């Protein structure tokens, strides 16, 4: 029996938009989601009247992001709307895909905004909370615990980990939207103090303000839009909702299930992927996902990145926008925006030549995984 | 989480830590040890459980060293080691490794004790012990 999804290529992304990234003092998360939505409508060449679905997402700082609020701000009485409490972009566009496939909506606006940077400051490190840990530890601690495992399992080095940020800063230096565009060398990385030993602040994305939005429609309708449609060829998720009941909360070998699923439903092989996008709250995520998704073998991620294969000019471009680490911390939303721009061929100096197939891989810590494969045809 | 009611099972667990006992619910029906505390067993959904004091022995799964820094008005925080530990009885828990704080390795055997005293700082402390200490089940 074929595992190829009947929804393969049924919907396409026809608009993407983003606000300026960095700091937006005086704006709420919802304001930024609205601004991003307008940008995506403009990109798609449509008015809000042509939208009949809305997916919104609660900001990482717990701001509203509620569809009933965003819908009112945008003046939308759509046929279908929903909001996700953890709508990092894969999860949100998957809901939009299902809404269109079911016929509940035809053209869906998917939007996100956050003012976490202005609200919280520079790094997501609440050391006192880590120290007082009873239920949830912040990203730097997860990042450090994850890299400690990679050192233990594979003798991964600090230089190898640092090469993740070195590569992504190089990509970001070619991306006008990116917040952290200054390239760094591995020596700069090693000279920085530990944030939490064994990781440095370069290994964790700081908080940024901004918004990003995507417009998705059925493939039949997509040809009437002005942009080259970017088809959604496969969507897959898995959960480990048992969380701390599971023995593996850090290595996350279960991500392989997402990888196998998404390549099967999309009928795409790893070798055909032109660029890889990995949600990267911390640099060890990138290494781990390259391994779990089978682009390299277990323990090979660190050396592979250190050899420059994921950097500009490398054989497997990864996080070509700079990702969270260098572009902006937008919960994976700008990762999808970047994929669309790459597949349209609109990325200027950082364009991956002839890019036709891309994958975006994301996780919600130790609880969920998701992936989307996008593609364009000639 | 601010605003959320603390369930009775969680309150019992954390009160025990204040009293310097580390105890978890053991399912009366299937024997599974629950962590985090919950109203039903996540294996068999039975609501019957007995509280059981554990040995505290376990193994370091991962660790990270926080460097001291000031945070808000709470003053300087001394260096501390965050430990992720798998207890012999099963629970995957976090806490502070207090002794030693240098030369640690994944796989080191530790013994947990309840930190006690300050409710919001009510966490587990771990001390590295001899590999043979305690009897792994």
What secondary-structure arrangement, pairings included, does this model have?
The complex is a heterodimer of chains A (378) and B (137).
Chain A: E1 11-18, H1 29-44, E2 53-57, H2 67-74, E3 80-84, H3 89-102, E4 107-114, H4 116-120, H5 127-131, H6 139-154, H7 158-172, H8 186-191, E5 194-197, E6 199-200, E7 210-218, H9 219-222, E8 230-239, H10 255-266, E9 275-278, H11 283-292, H12 301-306, H13 323-326, H14 333-344, E10 357-364, E11 368-375
Parallel strand pairs in A: 2-3, 2-4, 9-10
Antiparallel strand pairs in A: 1-7, 1-8, 4-7, 5-6, 8-11, 10-11
Chain B: H1 8-18, E1 23-27, E2 33-34, E3 49-53, E4 57-66, E5 69-70, E6 76-77, E7 80-87, E8 92-99, E9 109-114, E10 124-128
Parallel strand pairs in B: 8-10
Antiparallel strand pairs in B: 1-2, 1-3, 4-7, 4-9, 5-6, 7-8, 9-10
Q: Can you walk me through this structure?
A:
The complex is a heterodimer of chains A (378) and B (137). With 378 residues, chain A is an alpha/beta fold. Helices cover 35% and strands 19% of the residues of chain A. Chain A has 14 helices and eleven strands. Chain A has helices at 29-44, 67-74, 89-102, 116-120, 127-131, 139-154, 158-172, 186-191, 219-222, 255-266, 283-292, 301-306, 323-326, 333-344, and strands at residues 11-18, 53-57, 80-84, 107-114, 194-197, 199-200, 210-218, 230-239, 275-278, 357-364, 368-375. In chain A, the strands form two sheets. A nine-stranded mixed beta sheet of chain A has the order 3-2-4-7-1-8-11-10-9, with helices on both faces. In chain A, strands 5-6 form a two-stranded antiparallel sheet. In chain A, a hairpin with a 1-residue loop joins strand 5 and strand 6. In chain A, helix 7 packs across helix 11 (283-292). Chain A is globular, with a radius of gyration of 19 Å. The model of chain A is unreliable at 125-136 (pLDDT under 50). Chain B has 137 residues and is mainly beta. The radius of gyration of chain B is 16 Å and the shape is globular.
